[in-house]
Amino acid sequence: MPRGITPRQPARTGRQDRVARGTFVRNRGKTLRLKTTANLPDAGKNSPQTRPEKRLKREGASAKVSSKKAAYNPIEPSRVHEILRRLDELYPDATCALTHNSAWELLVATILSAQSTDVNVNRVTPELFRKYPSVEAFAALEPEQLEPDIRSTGFFRNKSKSVVGAAKKIVADFGGQVPMNMNDLLTLPGVARKTANVVLGTWGKIADGIVVDTHVHRISRRLELTTNNDPQKIEQDLMQIIPRKKWILFSHQIIWHGRKLCFARKPKCVDCKLENICHAADKTWSTVEMHKDAKGK
């Protein structure tokens, strides 16, 4: 050992300081080099070139960020509950906007509302039901006779066939009464699950499914309640996470939300009570991270 150099003592913590091979030390103004570190096992592993603390710290921080992102679950029950709670605040009494006085009138109005607005349908139906006051009156028509009365709703030829066909089926098979179960409703011309759910939910107060119209389709995807585009798959996704007792009201609330705030183009995010739990990529204003896959289209 060079003269004047005192061996370093073990730390009180029990962790011996290690001196890397080739380390220079100073003594009385002179620089000396320790020739060997054979008596110091694993020497050099904690040298500046190989010290792992900073790398581990960075990796630990990255792991925390990654775990937070991985932990986000858009259909977590607590998040779904919060969405429903806020919708209740916004639209506590939401209901169907189509004017009707019977299950048959609601069925006709819903068929006519496809690719049209409820406002436009409500302009057409009062005169339509005055002219043809019963399901039997519609059943006595030929589709061509009905076309001029519903032309303004769009796709009037197909709609005429559906309405007249449904009337004939109801008179022939169901005694002139609109059936109040999903299977029978789906046998009627022009009736798919959306129309059947409107009739069952709004008129019959029967929660057999969730109405998936253009608003429910768009907003459910923006809120990341589904990643599907097919209406039937969207309905199945929503039925898995929305409590059954909320199925009817939920669809009305989302439809109203789509009409008042969450537009297809330029939604009014700044005025929306759902804004800080919505990560939609097509938001117009946001206080939270936006997710590229959360889009209304």
Give the secondary structure arrangement, pairings included.
Layout: E1 24-27, E2 30-33, H1 53-71, H2 77-90, H3 103-112, H4 118-131, H5 135-139, H6 143-150, H7 156-173, H8 182-185, H9 193-203, H10 214-222, H11 231-241, H12 247-260
Antiparallel strand pairs: 1-2
What overall geometry do the principal axes of the alpha carbons give?
Answer: elongated
Low-confidence stretches: 15-25, 34-41
- Structural class, from helix and strand content? mainly alpha
Instruction: State the major sheet.
Output: 2 strands, antiparallel
What is the averaged pLDDT score?
Answer: 86
Span of the ends, CA to CA: 78 Å
Number of helices: 12
Helix percentage range: 40-55%
The CATH fourth-level homologous superfamily of the domain at 103-177: Hypothetical protein, domain 2
User: What order do the strands of the largest sheet run in, or round the barrel if closed?
Assistant: 1-2
The arrangement of helices and strands along the chain is EEHHHHHHHHHHHH
What is the CATH T-level topology of the domain at 103-177? Endonuclease III, domain 1
Q: What is the level 1 CATH name of the domain at 103-177?
A: Mainly Alpha
Tell me what the CATH architecture of the domain at 103-177 is.
Answer: Orthogonal Bundle
